[in-house]
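Milestone M4 deliverable, item 7.
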Amino acid sequence: MKLHINLIKHIFLTLAFSCIFIGCNVQTDSSLPDDDKDNNSYKESDDEVALIIGMGILSDSGYNQAAYEGIQTYALAADISYSHYAPVADTPEAYKEAVLTAIEDNAHLIICAGPHFEQAVGDLQAVYSDRYFLLLDGVPRDSSGAPVPIASNVHCITYHEEEAGYLAGYMAVLEGYEKLGFIGGEQLSSVQRYGYGYLQGINDAAAVLDKSGDISVDYWYADTFFPNQKTEDISLEWYQNGTQVIFACGGSLYQSILPSASACGGRLIGADENQNGISDLFLTSAIKGVKSSVIVALDDFYAAGNTWPEEAAGKVISYGAAQKCIELPISSETWRFKNAALKDYLQILAALKAGSIQISAQTDVPPKTDISVIYHNE
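Output delivered:
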């Protein structure tokens, strides 16, 4: 029997975001699909929920995987069928075609993971008014990139990545690091918010420690979320020149930075999800709660009778520290700081939740800082 009530949210929060598995007719295990299913081959007609990822792989230990696990956790608990799709190319046409394929396969709720789907949702929301869309990290747009009114069959979720980046940067400086780096994927607003928040956190911690003149940051966008040789070469050069920790922000990009860190004794900071389990070289991870926000959205959708409730229909909800969606990992297995104290982190997090720390979310210009920042894309 499907649990189309807010019981799922209660269970989910009570178990502290642990997975629940009760009766599923589609997939009977909690593992990710096989690798060959990452290549747009896993499609089942008449699945209620379809996840469409951007260019990348499903099992990226980050954003895509978090969105998938959010769907999986809810669907297994509520006996809802689900599947996933991926575009065949990194073009607006391919993203739209992936959405259309899910619609043709009779998906009722289509979850589009990332801002690459903004135009596709903008084009299709009115045409397919009998289907429902959850757009993560974006709002519907037209072909010129301008926002369009959000239809009632669409719900959008955005995140305060600047808060997650701020926490990571602040704690890295408290730990004692003075030469830091940021390597982002594509220059999207979500990635920029991570990076600019990171700079603001570094800058504020440096000011508290009276070390602004001693701290420097190298900052670069790789223009891809995939592992690649150029990113490995640049990160290796940075580490060899004294960079101590690099914020690896974007999909599987960390896979290019990890070998360089290993070769030079450097550290990494992960993004989106807790990536500390990948390697002991991860100092921490800037988490933005993709999995938990997807579970809550699905619960709201089915509790309202397979539709978006009034507070979500045609609306954008932005999740941050105040909504308990922004954090660094603090369990005994994942807390890697030796000099920075947990109580200091908890104080900063509480200040973010209370709104007493003001972090700019602007992405049109970099934040003003007293530390030295070298922007390598300029």
